[in-house]
């Protein structure tokens, strides 16, 4: 029984490594955008067919703080749903 659990765990790790290898790092592109628009930090994630295809982070967590922004950092999206919904509705109308 323990052997089966270990085999399942190893199989899942192999799948996770394969999936992570397919994810494109767009941090260098985000750095150019961040500097151009004078932002302290910028993070992005792109999905295709329910899977992550690209991700990246650039800059700092806070203005004046040298701690770098990472792709694993949590970002508050509070109060963004109104304009996101309006944008999606506008695109559907067009």
From TrEMBL:
Q: Under what name is this protein listed? A: Beta-lactamase-related domain-containing protein
Q: Which Pfam families match?
A: Beta-lactamase
Domain Beta-lactamase-related, by residue range, is 37-94
Keyword list, A-Z: Signal
Lineage top rank: taxon: Eukaryota
User: Which residues are the signal sequence here?
Assistant: 1-21
Species this chain originates from = Adineta steineri
